[in-house]
Every structure is written in C-alpha cells, then in structure tokens.
Design goal:
386 residues; 13 helices; two-stranded antiparallel sheet; mainly alpha
C-alpha cells in the first residue's frame, strides 16, 4: 500500500508541474497556452506592463547605441545623395549578398561573385539601360533612375548562372539554387527601389543643367523627403512594435516564425507608425517640402490634393513592413540561424535591418511610379517588364 501511495503522489506532482516542465537543455519553461481573451488576461489587462530583466535592458541599450551610430552614417548619405548615397547602398548590397549566401552555407569566392553580379544587374538595370541607349557619360546619377524595371532578360541569365553552380559544386543543390534565385530577385528589385525613391524626386525640383555633386536644397533636402518618409514609417513600425511588445506583449502572433512578436506589438507598431508618418507627411507638405511633387505642380503637391495619398501610404507601409519582417524571420527559422550577420551589434546583419525596408520601398516605389505615370498620362504596364 505504501508503494501505491508513492505512485499516486508522484503522479499528482507530475500533473501539477506539467505546464512548467523544461522543454530543452536550456531549461526554458513552456508558457501556459490560454485563449486570446481568457479570464486571466482580462484581469491583467491587455496592455499591462511587463517587468524587464537585466539582459533585456542591456540588449535594448545596445540596440539604441547601434541605431544612433547607423543614423550618423546613413542620414548624411541620404541627404547628400548623388554618388555618396550610391556608394553606401552598394556597400549594403554587397553585404546583403554575402549574408544570404551564408544561409545556405555555400559561401565561396565564385558563388559570391556570381550572386553579386546577378543581384547587382537587377539593382543597376535602370543605369545600364540608360547608358546603353544614351551613352556612357556619367554625371548626375539621378537621371538614370527615373523608372523602375524588372528586367526579364537579367532574371533568365541569372537563373542560368545560379543553376550552373549546381554543376560546379556537388554540395550546391537545386534547393539552394531556387532559394538564392528568389532572394536575388527580391534583393535586386528592393535595392533598385532604394535608388529610385531617392533619385526620382530630383527631376521634380530642378532642370537637367544641374551638375553632379550639387548639394543645394533642390538636390538634397527636398528630394530626400520621400525616402525619409518611407524609412521613418518603416522604422516607427519596427520600433513601436518592439517597445510595445516588450512592455505590454502577452499574446503571440506566430510562435512558429517569430516567438517574440505579439499582437499588442503589432497593433502598437501599426498605430504609432500610421500616426507619426501621417503627421510627418502632412507637416512636410504644409512647410513646402511635399513628398509627392514640387512647387510647379509636376506632381500632386498641395495638401488638398494629396492628404489622402499620405494617409494611404502611411497605412500600407506598416502592414508591408510587418510582412517583410515575418518573411525574413521565417527564412532564419528555416535555415536555423539567429541573425543574418554580426555587422550591427544588437541588431545582427544588414538584412536584419533591411528586412522590412526592402518590402516597404518596393510597395512605395510601385505606388509612386503608378501615381506619377497616371499624372503624366504615360502609365503602361509594359514598363514593369522591360
């Protein structure tokens, strides 16, 4: 009878602790699954503040310091534009290619060169196309990025080159090739849009006689506002979601892809981004720095004309920023990596910072391209497929 009592006692202890037993060697406790609006959550409140550990506080401080250093480097490049901005984005493009190849563990000199050429051809296609038609004279780089393209010929050639690597390297599988091709198209077009959003607005504020390295307001501050608007909205989504999630997050969005993202953080990020970017865009327009045009009416310029466009773009951006974050997080989970790189302390690699931006600049570029083409009566779907 004694033995039976011991068994009953052990079983009862096991049943009591089953919800908090460690699930791996790191002694991480399994959270108790509850309904979205369970009684406990109602009593706690949807936005009850969390207590931060010392590690979380240290991580937050590192992220803030790295962000400040990054802003010191990136912000001047954005405002100065021209070939300075081109050089900074090209450096980021090279690092992004290096990090993507690291996912598949197929990083060699040959694969890096082939992959960079593939991605760079898509990103620089407007430049190459202009030079092929009008000659190789290089002055103002903004004249090359007046449109966005998805060059089919380049994509086909790149597919051949990447699949050729499966023949050269026995460990380079078709699975690796398909992943790298898809990411090359995304990266190439995303970086092309980073150029487009910075260089295209210049044509709205000045004439063709302005030379390269011209750092006047019409060549720096005013044309930069569109890109600054998109980046600010994206960062506000990420930052708002991070801090709201850290302090108030309770309900997970998708633990399979991103265990730390919560519905509270998502809602907070969207609301914060929408409000701040809308106010930012409206204030810019009122102060004479419209993100959609110039003083001569070459585009939608007055607040009466474009306030609703600002609101639409302010709402679209945080949604696609969240989607981009989830897509790149799912890639990391699939390949079993924590970060894409270690270049930025507290943040990871370049792609850990550009994951959301690549999605938002693409959707913003398509939005602006369609609006400008419709406004000029030149819209044609074939322009996307040249």
């Amino acid at each position: 009878m004694k033995k039976k009592d011991d068994v009953i006692e052990v079983v009862s202890v096991a049943e009591k602790d089953v919800e908090t037993m460690p699930i791996n060697s790191n002694d991480v406790e399994t959270p108790v699954r509850r309904g979205f609006f369970s009684k406990k959550e109602k009593n706690q409140g949807f936005f009850k503040k969390n207590e931060l550990s010392s590690g979380a506080k240290k991580s937050m401080l590192t992220r803030i310091i790295s962000a400040i250093v990054g802003l010191i480097i990136v912000v001047p490049a954005i405002f100065l534009g021209d070939w300075i901005y081109f050089a900074v984005i090209t450096f980021a493009l090279g690092v992004a290619c290096y990090e993507i190849l690291g996912c598949t563990n197929r990083r060699t000199v040959v694969t890096l060169i082939v992959y960079f050429i593939f991605v760079a051809l898509i990103a620089y296609w407007p430049l190459f196309k202009y030079m092929a038609v009008n000659g190789a004279a290089i002055s103002k780089i903004d004249q090359y990025y007046q449109m966005i393209y998805l060059p089919i010929i380049v994509v086909v050639v790149g597919v051949f080159l990447v699949f050729l690597l499966t023949v050269i390297y026995k460990d380079f599988t078709v699975h690796d090739a398909c992943f790298l091709i898809a990411m090359a198209i995304l990266l190439g077009f995303g970086f092309q849009c980073l150029f487009y959003l910075r260089y295209y607005p210049i044509s709205l504020y000045q004439n063709a006689e302005v030379k390269a390295w011209d750092f006047t307001i019409s060549n720096t501050i005013k044309p930069s506002m569109l890109l600054v608007f998109v980046i600010l909205s994206t960062f506000m989504t990420d930052t708002g979601a991070y801090f709201v999630g850290v302090f108030f997050g309770k309900n997970k969005m998708n633990e399979r892809i991103s265990p730390k993202k919560t519905w509270e953080g998502f809602v907070g990020g969207v609301v914060i981004s929408f409000v701040l970017s809308s106010v930012f865009g409206i204030v810019l327009t009122v102060c004479g720095f419209p993100i959609f045009g110039d003083k001569d009416g070459n585009f939608f310029v007055s607040l009466a004309d474009n306030w609703y466009l600002i609101l639409i773009l302010s709402l679209i951006i945080p949604l696609f920023a969240t989607l981009g974050d989830f897509v790149f997080s799912s890639i990391k989970r699939y390949w079993g990596i924590k970060d894409y790189g270690k270049l930025i302390p507290g943040h990871g690699g370049v792609l850990d910072r550009l994951d959301s931006i690549l999605f938002t600049v693409i959707v913003a570029s398509i939005f602006v391209f369609m609006l400008s083409a419709i406004n000029e009566g030149k819209f044609n779907w074939e322009q996307f497929l040249v």
